[in-house]
């Protein structure tokens, strides 16, 4: 038996989420003003190697001791000289570190009214002194294991919540990074299959579209830089909306040129058909684009297209430190 109100801090049950609760030991704290009760219960538990026993004779120090030894069950005497046992039950439940700790009230009498009061204040069990050894150990194990299981469950929930928060941060990064170049459906597909973001790539058949504005370089040389920027923004905004509408992947902007892939990172059977439909609508939208830039009093732009309808075998790589998608190799098939 430990000395009165001793604290064995090296065996404390941790409430830290990083603590391995699978190896948590049963820890008993007995609070009783009668030393012979302490010796008796200590003797009962002495032959149980998996049970750590602590004894506190002074009820005024019980809460302090409970905070340090983190018991898996508290045995609280009902009749104490300084603090009433029922009042101690209330104090345990108000204390952060013992609020959920199983509490067994010990009493010298079998009184239904006292039992009811103890349970109403938060006690988990009630035993008459002196307790039977087998029954006492059984109840200690039962309540302690239930408590340890609860701590393990809560720790698991905290880990899940932390992982969910980390995943949400990652998903927001992906949405922010790829959202300007990919449709919402494709971004969601990437989030559902994160292995697609691993270093390296894969061979895949895709359809590629390359578009530009014919004569843009010579026209741009005759305009102030701010006008060139305004014109290219109008054009790229209009084209980007259409490309995303048809679930194309914008691989790269090269001045006024746009390189678009259909079939990566998500392959669909109608990639080539959508690429053609996308090209047609982009061509039709040039009338609107030319109207928007007419205030600069320049010639209408002519839109150029190179659409590879022969499917290509491409190696596509999405690097962890570079969110762009690169075409590393292309071969006609």
Automatic annotation (TrEMBL):
The keyword Signal does not apply. One of its GO terms (molecular function) is adenylate cyclase activity. It comes from the Bacteria. SMART domains: CYCc, REC. SUPFAM superfamilies: CheY-like (SSF52172), Nucleotide cyclase (SSF55073). The modification 4-aspartylphosphate is found at residue 77. Keywords: Phosphoprotein. GO terms for biological process: cAMP biosynthetic process; phosphorelay signal transduction system. Residues 207-333 form the Guanylate cyclase domain. InterPro entries: A/G_cyclase, Adenylyl/Guanylyl_Cyclase_3/4, CheY-like_superfamily, Nucleotide_cyclase, Sig_transdc_resp-reg_receiver. Residues 27-144 form the Response regulatory domain. PANTHER family: ADENYLATE CYCLASE, TERMINAL-DIFFERENTIATION SPECIFIC, ADENYLATE CYCLASE, TERMINAL-DIFFERENTIATION SPECIFIC-RELATED. This is Two-component system, chemotaxis family, response regulator WspR.
């Amino acid at each position: 038996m430990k000395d009165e109100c001793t604290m064995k801090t090296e065996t404390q049950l941790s409430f830290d989420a990083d603590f391995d609760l699978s190896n948590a030991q049963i820890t008993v704290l007995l609070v009783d003003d009668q030393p012979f009760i302490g010796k008796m219960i200590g003797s009962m538990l002495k032959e149980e190697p998996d049970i750590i026993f602590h004894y506190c004779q002074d009820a005024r120090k019980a809460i302090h001791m409970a905070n340090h030894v983190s018991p898996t069950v508290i045995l609280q005497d009902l009749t104490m000289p300084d603090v009433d046992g029922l009042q101690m039950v209330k104090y345990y439940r108000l204390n952060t570190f013992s609020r959920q700790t199983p509490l067994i009230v010990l009493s010298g009498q079998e009184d239904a009214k006292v039992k009811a009061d103890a349970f109403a204040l938060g006690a988990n069990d009630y035993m008459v002194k002196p307790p039977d050894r087998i029954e006492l150990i059984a109840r200690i194990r039962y309540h302690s294991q239930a408590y340890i299981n609860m701590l393990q469950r809560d720790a698991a929930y905290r880990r899940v919540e932390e992982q969910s928060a980390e995943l949400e941060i990652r998903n927001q990064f992906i949405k922010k990074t790829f959202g300007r170049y990919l449709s919402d459906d494709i971004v969601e597909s990437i989030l559902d299959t994160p292995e697609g973001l691993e270093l390296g790539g894969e061979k895949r058949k895709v359809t590629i579209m390359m578009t530009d504005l014919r004569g843009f370089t010579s026209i741009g040389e005759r305009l102030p830089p701010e006008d060139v920027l305004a014109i290219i923004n109008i054009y790229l905004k209009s084209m980007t909306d259409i490309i995303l509408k048809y679930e194309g992947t914008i691989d790269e902007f090269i001045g006024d040129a746009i390189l678009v892939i259909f079939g990566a990172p998500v392959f669909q059977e109608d990639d080539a058909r959508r690429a053609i439909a996308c090209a047609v609508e982009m061509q039709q939208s040039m009338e609107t684009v030319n109207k928007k830039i007419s205030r600069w009093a320049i010639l209408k732009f002519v839109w150029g297209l190179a659409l590879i309808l022969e499917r290509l075998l491409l190696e596509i790589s999405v690097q962890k430190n570079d969110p762009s998608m690169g075409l590393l190799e292309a071969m006609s098939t």
